[in-house]
Each structure stands twice: as C-alpha cells, then as structure tokens.
Design a protein that fits this description.
Layout (H helix, E strand, L loop, with lengths): L1 E4 L5 E7 L2 E6 L37 H12 L3 E6 L4 H4 L4 E3 L1 H9 L6 E5 L2 H10 L5 E3 L8 H4 L3 H13 L6 E6 L4 H9 L3 E3 L4 H11 L2 E5 L2 H10 L8 E4 L10 H6 L2 E4 L11 H10 L4 E4 L5 H6 L2 E2 L2 H10 L5 E5 L2 H10 L4 E4 L15 H12 L6 E2 L3 H15 L5
Parallel strand pairs: 4-5, 4-6, 6-7, 8-9, 8-10, 10-12, 11-12, 13-14, 13-15, 15-16
Antiparallel strand pairs: 1-2, 2-3, 7-17
This protein binds iron/sulfur cluster.
C-alpha cells in the first residue's frame, strides 16, 4: 500500500490487490463551517454540552491499551455499540456495529450487560434506554454527540403543528409517522397520537400502514425520507406533499394547502446527506464512466432520482458486498462508512459521491479519549453521561416502536 498527498492537500491511498489497484481519494475540506459544539449550551438540547470529566489527551500513546484494559476489566458487564458512521479509532472497540435500530435491538438482546456504551448519537442512546431493561444503564461517551436532524423537531413545535391541524379539523384524519432519527419526546408524541416509528428500511411499510389508519400523514423530522418514500415508492405526486416550516405561523401553509395535502413533511433534514447535490451525481458520472451511484434516502429528492440505487445504510453495505470485482461505485452516505467499505473491498472501485468532506460532525464527537474516559469511569464504579428517558415518554415511545415492529413483514 502506498500513500501520498494529492493536489490541494488531498490524501490519496493506493492498494494493489491481486493485480487490481484500488484508490481511495480523501475529499478536500469543505468551505462550510462545522457546527460549533461542546461549549456551555443548553444541556436540554442534543448538542453543545461540555464534557464534565478529565479526558485523556488525544496524544496519549496508551489510549488503545487503556481502552482495551478497561473493556477487559468490565467483561460481560459492558456492551459497546458502534454506529456505522463512527470513527475507526472507536469502531475497533465495538462489540457490534449497525444502524441505530439494529444497535438498540442488540442492546436489548444482551440483558446481562449492565452498561451499554453507545458510540452513536443522543437519540440512539435514548432508543437503547427505551428498549433495554431498567437494570441496564446506557452511556453516551460525549453528551455533545447529538443529531442536527433530531434537533430540527422539538416537542413544543410539533405540538403547535398538531394544534394547527386540530383547529382545522384535520388531526383526527392525520397519522404521525416519525423517523427513528428523532428524540424520545417526538417518538412519545407519535405513540400518544396513534402513529408509528419507521427506519429508512421500512418507511414504505410504515406509510402503507399509516394510510390504512388515516387520510394524511405528518412525517417527522426528515422531509427527504418522507418525500422520497411517498413519491418514489408510494406513487404520490410532489403536489400531494407540502412542507411544514415550524418557524412560520401555521407552518407557512394555508388551510387549503393543509386540507389538500396527503403528506405533510416536516422541514428537517440530515446535514450530512443533505449536502449531496445533483451536481455531485453529474460530476461523478462524467469522471467515472460506468459508475453506479448508490445513495441513502436521506438525500435530496433530485439526488435520489438521479441515482441508480437507493437504500438504507445496511442496504448500502449489502449491495457493495455483493458487487462484482472491478465494479465502480459512488456512494452517497457518511464518509467514515464509505472509507471503511473502500478499504474492505479493494477489488472494487469505491468512492465518495461528493468531492467535499462529509462526516457526521456530531457523531464524530465521540473519539477515543471520550471512550477511554467513559470506560475507565465505569471500571472505577462511576456511571458517567447516563442517558435516561422518563417513564411516561418511554412508555408512549415504546408504543410507537412496537407498532413499527408489528408492521407486516417486520
Ligand atoms: S448522519 Fe445525519 S441523521 Fe445521522 S446522526 Fe448525523 S446528522 Fe443525524
């Protein structure tokens, strides 16, 4: 393997594998500023919370040894979950990797594990707390690891929107559906109001169920997953969808628009997947003839339409694994995962869809120093950064999650 620095400081790595040379090109830095995180903001939000502990220095050469020792000392008492978008330095300590729902279910399937260390983001740790027993404690190594999409739908905003629908006599015909990537409060709201949670794998089945219960859907918080599923998989038209902006009175919509709509999309999006554009797709097709473009349904509608294949993180992984040697893939999802796929499949040409860096900056708050700190504190008998969901919210969120598990084919 050789590594060098490409034009503009871009790192390029080359692998020669059985005569096939695979190249990973690190995208250049983006001009867009990352979210400012971690300094003295409201702890009730999902981000901007200072770590209360004494973190080891990132330069400590013993971090890997310390994490290994702490994990060994805890044995079966700890179960470490690693989301697919997590850093390599952290993922190496994960007992299981997966998407958010798979990880929450894996935690629930390990009742002997007293401590669930969730290397993901806040809403995922909440789901794990909801699905695990009271005897299990869920730890998020850095409380600043939130999700910008989940933050785009706060409970008071959603309750206001529901009030708008109620005043128009529409709420009773509307079924709320929330993506897994939402706070426990929102899942609780949906459970309280006869709705369902969905993932990017089962959004179509969730919407089919919802339209059997009512005439309209309020889809939270990801407009793109809602629109892509409704239009590309359910046969609705773009005109059947309206966008509810929580920052405008009445969502910025007229009563008529709300009455006519079949799909009321919340104005939320993923700041990572929302970065891919139609230009990204056109550009890679020009640069790499014959490339297959594979994207996540959290991408914008025009990007999904222009792609060859669309599917959840698990679908993306399965598709790349099954691809023939020598095939070329441009993948539109988080960069850590795409890089790991490229490294794991040197016989295929796997590249990132965009030229710019596209990490989930909040997920990446969890680094090795935070993981070492959380594990060593557990060894010392102190549970840090525990994530808990109050009993009432957890009960109703569980209703919406159970409804998802009861979907046909679930
Ligand atoms: S990738 Fe997007 S949806 Fe997933 S945690 Fe990061 S901001 Fe949230």
């Amino acid at each position: 393997m050789a590594a060098h620095t490409g034009a503009g400081g871009t790192a390029v790595a080359l692998w020669d594998h059985g005569g096939v040379t695979s190249t990973w090109v690190e995208p250049s830095n983006t001009a867009t500023a990352l979210l400012l995180l971690g300094r003295g903001s409201d702890p009730a939000t999902e981000r901007g919370v200072e770590c209360p502990g004494d973190l080891p220095a990132p330069s400590d050469p013993d971090l890997v040894a310390r994490a290994t020792a702490a994990k060994a000392a805890l044995g079966d008492r700890v179960f470490v979950l690693g989301h697919h978008y997590q850093r390599d330095e952290v993922i190496q300590f994960a007992d299981v990797t997966g998407d958010s729902f798979k990880l929450a279910r894996e935690a629930a399937a390990r009742p002997q594990a007293e401590f669930i260390v969730f290397c993901g983001v806040h809403f995922m740790a909440e789901s794990a707390d909801i699905l695990t027993s009271d005897a299990q404690q869920v730890v998020l190594p850095d409380l600043a690891a939130g999700c910008s999409m989940a933050d785009m739908a706060a409970l008071p905003q959603v309750e206001n929107a529901w009030d708008v629908l109620t005043e128009l006599g529409l709420a009773e015909h509307t079924v709320p559906v929330t993506y897994m990537n939402s706070s426990a409060d929102i899942k609780g709201f949906v459970g309280r109001n006869g709705g369902v949670v969905c993932t990017s794998s089962n959004a179509k089945r969730a919407l089919e169920w919802a339209y059997q219960q009512g005439e309209k859907v309020l889809f939270l918080p990801d407009q793109h997953l809602g629109r892509n599923t409704a239009v590309l998989e359910m046969g609705l038209s773009l005109d059947d969808c309206v966008l509810y902006d929580p920052h405008k009175p009445g969502g910025g919509l007229t009563a008529e628009q709300l009455r006519e709509a079949k799909m009321i999309l919340w104005r939320g999006h993923c700041s990572v997947h929302g970065r891919f554009t139609l230009d990204s797709v056109n550009d890679v097709r020009q640069r790499v003839p014959g490339v297959t473009v594979l994207v996540h349904p959290e991408c914008r509608h025009e990007v999904v339409r222009a792609a060859d294949l669309v599917g959840s993180t698990e679908y993306i992984i399965r598709t790349i694994e099954a691809a023939p040697a020598g095939s070329a893939w441009a993948v539109g999802t988080e960069l850590n995962l795409v890089r790991r796929l490229a490294l794991a499949h040197p016989d295929k040409k796997i590249m990132f869809l965009d030229r710019a860096v596209c990490y989930c900056s909040t997920m990446n708050r969890i680094d090795l120093p935070h993981l070492v700190w959380a594990l060593e504190e557990l060894v010392a008998g102190r549970v840090v950064n525990r994530i808990t969901v109050d009993a009432d919210t957890a009960h109703h969120a569980r209703v919406a999650l159970d409804q998802m598990l009861a979907l046909p084919g679930a």
